[in-house]
Amino acid sequence: MTPHRLHRILSLTVALALATGITLASVTPAHAAAPSNDNFADAVTLNPAVTGSTDVYGTTVDATTQAGEPSHDPDGATPTPGSIWYSYTSAFDGNLTLSVTADADYDSVIAVYVGYAVGSLTRLAANDDRSSTSTAASIVSLPIHAGWDYKIAIAGKAGVRSFTKLTYRFSQHPTNDPVSSPETLGVNWSQTRWNVNATAEAGEIPAIAGQAASKSVWWRYQPVHNGTLSLTTSGSGFDTVLAVFRQEALPFSFGSLTRLASNDDANPSTSTSAISGLELKANKTYWICVDGYQGATGEITLTDAWVPSSRPDNDDFADATALNAASDLVGDNATATLEPDEPQHLTGGNASKSLWYRFVPPTNGAVTVDLRGTAFDSVLSLYRGTTLSGLVKIAENHGTQTPPIVWSRLSRVSVQGGVHYYLAVSGADGSSGSVTGTFRFSTQPSAVSLTPDHGPAAGGNWIEVHGSDLDGSNTRVYFGDTQAQVEVPNEETQSTLVRAKVPAGLPVGPITVTVATNGGNAGTTLSYIVGVPELTALSARYVRVGGGQRVQVVGADFLGVPSVSVGGMPATGVAVSSPTSLSFVTPKHSAGDAEVRISTSVGQSSASTAGWLTYLDPPKVSKLSRKKGPRKGGYHVVVTGKGLGVVSKVLVGPKKAKFVLSAGRIDVIVPKITKKATVYIRVVTPVGTSPKAKAARFQYR
Q: Is domain 44-172 classified as CATH 2.60.120.380?
């Protein structure tokens, strides 16, 4: 088996081990055998034709150190026993980035050389730890030339062995040449990179004002806390320039960058650069640029020192923490301070050590802040404004830590959409400790309508409340000052519809209905009328066109001195028996339907199917289709006349006759009679009986 075939099998085995988390401690080799690429002369050739990043797996288990082999540690002295070797030759000039990862307890090193014998190599780059928190990983990046044979050594310190994964990537330019692919700045760390083959991008802001960008490379840093950053390129192999920018807006563009600091030469005796004590803010994005003075290139050593601030990140008004509609308040004000123009947060007292938060409501609404769990004598203050000196206090609360404990709280404070608000959490008389609390914003609800908008004086009936931004069963509905029971008929529509039970004991008449949530009261109030009369039944369905007929009414809330209208005409003789019963005398009206309405000082009854009368003309027979007929009966006589639209019965003489009513015509089946006689055909309706008239005379033969 060839060394390269053996290495391929080993690579697959190592890849499986790394993927499944197997460590060397759990692997027992069948026999001791050095890796195929243990010696310099047996270096595994890396494929230069691949694009992107490529992984190659290996192991330093049973690897040895050759006679004359150098230390691969960056210091050139620390022993690095147990190395494996790779080689790389590119057809093009460019940049090569190599990184190695291994078991967590393996302190890897990587080094790149040129040369033809292990004892006479020239080192080009080396790295021990990728960052302060990553000792098992190492990385180097360097410019390379076409046709050169580069040798790559991977080893470990302290005699430890491990499976390894080598990731390599070739590019025509340094990987952090474009600002879209920056390196991440380590914390209190030193990195070695190159700007050979780097370029300047279109629109790029130069590191030094007035000097065009030329061979720039980029780093990015996003601190999680306030602090100060110092940078130096001391140790770099060329004349550097250095700058730090802050990103002001999204998405990124060079136009969104503000240059905070820049430097060409740290002092007159050096060509490297330094920036010291630059204040950075938490959660902001900063960009670090290293360029060559007048196009200079070479190896860059970038070292940074980060010192977190001893004060809270939101100690200053300008650094207020942004809040959303539902935010948790956390922090500690032990080292917080007061600014020169800061207002007094406790009226009539003294509050200091403030923390600041900011919020811009998207719409009108209300905020609730609760410091339940805060471990000191806290003060809550809510302000409106955009500058510290121009703040206007709109709410304040000071709880107490003496039993019984009352937590500081602001409840449902109205705020306006688009306005800037600032919340200060401070300590009374310098009290301090950890902050625990919640901030909640709710949109102001809108009340649109009530269905129905009136009801009985007794209450207890349910009505629908329509609106927007309602809060389901947490919606509060007030009839005057009395809160109603609220329920949700459908959870899917609970933001636009709830039901309210009208309270008992409300005063008769119109009453204001207020709808509220944690977002405050609705901008408009609604009106509900208590005690509007209700008509549920009439004693008659049909009445005479001439009027004068007394009708009984059953309903509710017939209060005071009611009036009755029938088809818009006032009725007479209104007599109230009780709040649920009255009677009236019908007025004259033309034939047809007429609606009955009851009115009191509170209002008028609503339309109801039970509240209709039909006026009828008195019946009158004007013609019979035949005037004579045999005594045996059973034949038909068609009766026409007036007021024959509603017929109760038809009499032929004293006898009831069968009939069919159709379009005001009555088809009568004449009943049998025993003797000859002359009789009258009479029609009975709900308003009377047709008179005996010549036109209604019929003769039995």
A: yes
Q: Which residues contact 548 (CB under 8 A, 6 or more apart)?
A: 585, 586
Q: Which helix H or strand E contains 10, and what residues bound it? A: helix 3-20
The two structure tokens encoding residue 696:
């209604």
DSSP string, 33-52: ---TT-SGGGPEEPPTT--S
> If you ran DSSP here, which 8-state letter would residue 461 be given?
-
CATH class as words, domain 183-308: mainly beta
Residue recorded with tokens 């509900």:
528
- Note whether 666 and 597 are within 8 A (CB): no
Q: Where do the CATH 2.60.120.380 domains begin and end in the chain?
A: 44-172, 317-442
Taking residue 369's Cβ as centre, other Cβ atoms within 10 Å add up to: 25
pTM for this predicted structure: 0.67
Give the span between the Cα atoms of 453 and 481, in whole angstroms. Answer: 18
Domain 317-442: give its CATH code: 2.60.120.380
Give the Cα separation of 694 and 692 in Å (integer).
7
| Contacting residues for 609 by C-beta, under 8 A, at least 6 apart | none
Cβ(315)–Cβ(356) under 8 Å? yes
- Fold topology of 446-530: Immunoglobulin-like (2.60.40)
Q: Please give the Cα distance from 572 to 563 (Å, whole number).
A: 9
CA-based end-to-end distance of the chain: 138
Domain limits, CATH 2.60.40.10, in the chain:
446-530, 534-616, 620-700
Q: Are strands 299-308 and 227-232 parallel, antiparallel or unpaired?
A: antiparallel
Mind listing the pLDDT tens digit for each residue in 280-318? 999 999 999 999 999 999 999 999 999 999 999 999 999
Over the stretch 352-411, which tens digit does the pLDDT of each residue have?
A: 999 999 999 999 999 999 999 998 999 999 999 999 999 999 999 999 877 778 899 999
Return the residue matching tokens 């329920």: 487
Name the CATH superfamily, with its identifier, for domain 534-616: Immunoglobulins (2.60.40.10)
Per residue in 441-486, pLDDT tens? Answer: 999 999 999 999 999 999 999 999 999 999 999 999 999 999 999 9
Query: CA 202, 204, 210 angle in degrees (round to 5)?
Result: 120
Contact (CB, 8 A) for 584 and 548: no
The CATH architecture that domain 620-700 belongs to is Sandwich (2.60)
